[in-house]
UniProtKB/TrEMBL annotation:
Belongs to the metallo-dependent hydrolases superfamily. Adenosine and AMP deaminases family. ADGF subfamily. The keyword Hydrolase applies. The lineage of its organism: Eukaryota, Metazoa, Chordata, Craniata, Vertebrata. PANTHER family: ADENOSINE DEAMINASE, ADENOSINE DEAMINASE 2-A. GO terms for biological process: adenosine catabolic process; inosine biosynthetic process. It comes from Cynoglossus semilaevis (Tongue sole). Pfam families: A_deaminase, A_deaminase_N. This is adenosine deaminase. Keywords: Hydrolase, Membrane, Metal-binding, Secreted, Signal, Transmembrane, Transmembrane helix. InterPro entries: A_deaminase_dom (IPR001365), A_deaminase_N (IPR013659), ADGF (IPR006331), Ado/ade_deaminase (IPR006330), Metal_Hydrolase (IPR032466).
């Protein structure tokens, strides 16, 4: 092999490192820029070392250097660690070694079975205490655990429930006896039902099971394939719907959601929200802008009560099963909401099972409207949440990037799309990686094999998110941080990785740069406190 090949490899590696250091707007790096860079010296040194290396037995110094080079490329590999951080890192490394040698390694096990193991892990309790910055991908009606819905919401007066033909339930609050639903049993007033039973512990447990996918049984038997689990997912979602779209519950639910993330040391959220019409006890309803206004009011109230919480913004979402006419109308409505509520509204996205829904390309005319009209409507598209390589849906990654998406929801398939991956990196379009979601929805079994392992190793722009924690039996963000850090981060990811992930979550948010600076300053204060605390 000629020397030129090695020169090429090193230039490539260094351009990767530099574009990872300066991900936004760096563009292709020329040779001249590289040689002016502070790394040029190291490049030449490595070339010489390699030149010697190819003609004799491997040189340990060279090996050391290559290992260092790889480490410097990973997420957080460029951060200078303080003494306190290094001390904590040493502790973390020992904890990780112990955890990976234990019998059942949680990231290799389905989350439903791993949850108890994770709860017992000292790394997990550390991650719970860690200030994690922001969560940029969670859905409106999956931010509060199902137990709270049962214990708090279904105990309120006027709550009715019916059983559907296919193993689900529906709820409604109503002052009068509600109209019967087709494919559902007659309505039961829960107050009366519980009074009749005396002890409702078992009954409550049975209701809880309808509001989450979590099960004590073997998850692979209950949910043998993707279509079964997506079916159950949509049913659980519909079951929750009637509870949370009742106006007084909606407010309390969102407030409780903010509380649960705040308690998990998350300081800012970007929530994907359907903005449904909310209803009152007499059946009257409010429109979308009223729902958005309610989000804004509750966010302001919560932030006032908790000064080190930074706030939340809403990404308006609509189902990808829509037709072109209704998508066009929804996009026009989104443009109007974005104009009327610029503070709370972050942008727009499509939701629902990607494999069964319509691809972004199908909606290209509707989604190009904002650009054509010269108005702002930032996009935050789910894309690449699929195993179906080469299908129309599999093009969502490239199409999303062409439509100027600000981030990519999941991007699970990105390693199979070198052009999309390169664009995402060069444009600084971060991936929202949701490990537990991908495992539960059957894209990957063992989280050590998650595609983000490779992405983290090369410092690709990404953030860790929890998608639908309550449906997966999780809560907040720490469980997903655990899977990322211990699972696909392996022994190599360290305190720098965690720090970078937290910083990323603020830097890749929809906040303006000055807002990001304020949020980062608050985060930094809490981080410094966190790393200097005694671990044991
Ligand atoms: C339900 O939650 C609300 C709001 O957090 C709280 O005021 C109320 O006391 C709770 N009710 C029950 C029965 O837990
Ligand atoms: C209600 O039933 C559950 C189990 O079915 C039992 O554990 C619990 O102690 C009972 N509660 C009361 C107050 O009797
Ligand atoms: C998924 O599993 C269900 C239940 O076992 C089965 O009826 C269905 O055909 C399966 N679907 C696919 C796509 O394999
Ligand atoms: C359950 O029933 C509803 C209404 O009949 C139907 O639309 C839906 O597809 C069914 N879901 C499953 C998982 O069978
Ligand atoms: C499109 O969807 C809307 C709303 O779901 C529906 O009312 C309308 O009939 C659909 N139009 C066509 C052409 O299918
Ligand atoms: C994407 O951004 C480019 C450059 O700012 C602009 O020319 C183009 O119209 C945008 N496209 C869409 C669909 O927003
Ligand atoms: Zn999602």
């Amino acid at each position: 092999m000629s020397v030129c090949v090695y020169i090429y490899i090193y230039i490539y590696i260094y351009s990767s490192i530099l574009s990872c250091l300066f991900p936004v707007g760096t563009g292709p790096l020329s040779m001249a820029v590289l040689l002016q860079s502070p790394h040029a010296f190291l490049v030449i040194l490595l070339l010489l070392l390699y030149w010697v290396g190819v003609q004799s037995i491997p040189d340990p110094r060279q090996r050391e250097m290559l290992i260092k080079l790889e480490t410097s490329m990973q997420t957080g590999g460029q951060l200078q660690l303080t003494d306190a951080e290094q001390k904590l890192d040493a502790v973390l490394f020992k904890m990780k070694q112990r955890e990976s040698q234990a019998g059942a390694f949680p990231p290799a096990v389905h989350f439903f079975k791993a949850r108890e193991l994770i709860r017992a892990s000292p790394i997990f309790s550390l991650l719970q205490r860690m200030p994690k910055g922001a969560v940029l991908h969670v859905h409106d009606f999956s931010i509060v655990d199902a137990e709270w819905l049962v214990k708090n919401v279904t105990y309120r007066p006027h709550c009715y429930m019916c059983y559907t033909d296919n193993h689900s339930v529906r709820f409604i609050f109503s002052s009068l006896s509600p109209k019967p639903l087709s494919h559902c049993s007659p309505w039961i007033l829960l107050e009366n039902q519980r009074a009749k039973m005396g002890n409702s512990t078992d009954f409550d447990r049975s209701i809880t099971a309808y509001l989450t996918l979590f099960t004590e049984k073997d998850p692979d038997t209950v949910y043998p394939n993707q279509s079964v689990i997506w079916g159950a997912f949509e049913q659980a979602f519909l079951a929750v719907w009637g509870l949370v779209t009742y106006t007084p519950v909606f407010r309390d639910y969102y407030y409780q959601g903010l509380t649960q993330f705040y308690m998990d040391n998350v300081m800012y959220l970007e929530v994907r929200a359907m903005l449904p019409e909310l209803y009152e006890l007499d059946g009257s309803t409010h429109d979308r802008s009223w729902t958005l206004k309610t989000y804004q009011d509750v966010t302001v109230q919560f932030t006032k009560e908790n000064p080190d919480f930074f706030g939340a913004r809403i990404i308006f979402t609509t189902h990808r099963a829509a037709n072109i006419t209704s998508m066009t109308e929804t996009v026009m409505e989104a443009i109007k909401l974005q104009r009327d509520f610029p503070d709370i509204m972050a942008g727009f996205d499509l939701v629902g099972e990607e494999d069964k829904g319509r691809p972004l390309w199908y909606f290209r005319d509707a989604l190009s409207l904002p650009a054509e009209m010269g108005v702002t409507l930032p996009f935050f598209f789910h894309a690449g949440e699929t195993d179906l390589e080469g299908t129309e849906v599999d093009q969502n990654l490239l199409d999303g990037l062409r439509l100027n998406t600000s981030r990519i929801g999941h991007g699970f398939a990105i390693n199979r799309h070198p052009v999309a991956k390169d664009l995402s990196r060069k444009k600084g379009v971060a991936l929202e990686v949701c490990p537990i979601s991908n495992q539960v929805l059957k894209l990957v079994k063992d989280l050590q094999n998650h595609p983000a392992a490779a992405l983290m190793a090369e410092g690709h722009p990404l953030v860790i998110c929890s998608d639908d924690p309550s449906l997966f039996g999780a809560s907040g963000l720490s469980y997903d941080f655990y899977e990322a850090f211990v699972g696909f981060g392996g022994l190599r990811s360290n305190i720098g990785t965690l720090k970078q992930l937290a910083i990323n979550s603020i830097r890749f948010s929809s906040l303006t740069p000055p807002q990001q600076d304020i949020a980062l300053a608050i985060w930094q204060r809490r981080w410094d406190h966190f790393v200097s605390e005694k671990v044991f």
